[in-house]
Fold this sequence. Notes:
Strand content: 15-25%
Number of domains: 1
Mean pLDDT: 87
CATH superfamily: Spore Coat Polysaccharide Biosynthesis Protein SpsA, Chain A
Number of helices: 9
Structural class: alpha/beta
Number of strands: 9
CATH topology: Spore Coat Polysaccharide Biosynthesis Protein SpsA, Chain A
CATH architecture: Alpha-Beta Complex
Order of helices and strands: EHEHEHEEHEEEHHEHHH
Low-confidence stretches: none
Helix content: 25-40%
Largest sheet: 9 strands, mixed
Amino acid sequence: MTPKISIITISFNSEKTIEETIKSVVSQNYDNLEYVIIDGGSTDRTLEIVEKYRDKIATVVSEPDKGISDAFNKGIKHATGEIIGIINSDDVLLPDALQAVAAAYEPGVSVYRGNVLIWDNDTKITAYPSMKFPLHTFKKRIVCHQGTFITKEAYEKYNGYKVHFRYMMDAELLVRLYEGGEKFKYVPADLAMFRIGGVTSSSFLKKTDEIERFFRENGAGWLYAKTHVLLFIITNSILTVVRAIGLANFAKKIKFRLCR
């Protein structure tokens, strides 16, 4: 079976990277592909670049949004595929990725997760996806939404991403899906390349409020949530020190360790 796969790219002033992203999607050797681009109202050359490939893109929307989660949800609303993947405007879908996802497709599976290459100027690391996202250990899990494909049905059932989350929307959704009993399946292939940067690489201190809110909204008590925030701060403080003494690559390997 060759399911229809929708790929969503969200962008905002992404003229430096979006063309590589678009090429990686439209060059996929997979016929049953739908491509959706959701732009936040770019003022640079982003839309000019998108227009070059307009005949290969099913939907282009450019308008202000309420943040990344809102843009994701807009893309999901427009997508009509059985399976939906999200490749941001500074990431790359690897060759034959969609064929690998389609080969793994089976009724009853809501989430398909494959390997993601973590890349920057210094190092390349392969992040192997976690298949379990219980609430109490979610911070030990590899998220990397670029290698995650979720069915349209599951997105609709769980109401997509929570708009008030700016940093942890993907982890939060995976926990809800897992705790809700949805089936996860590993795709044994390298599916995407994720460039280190953007909001996911912002100062970890900016994320502490979201972590506490995440736990509380998913049923955890106040003390439990505060304890996990403290553990998050301690862990990331140690990684910051490791980077500061010249062991940045080692820190990255710890952060993106294999964890299933």
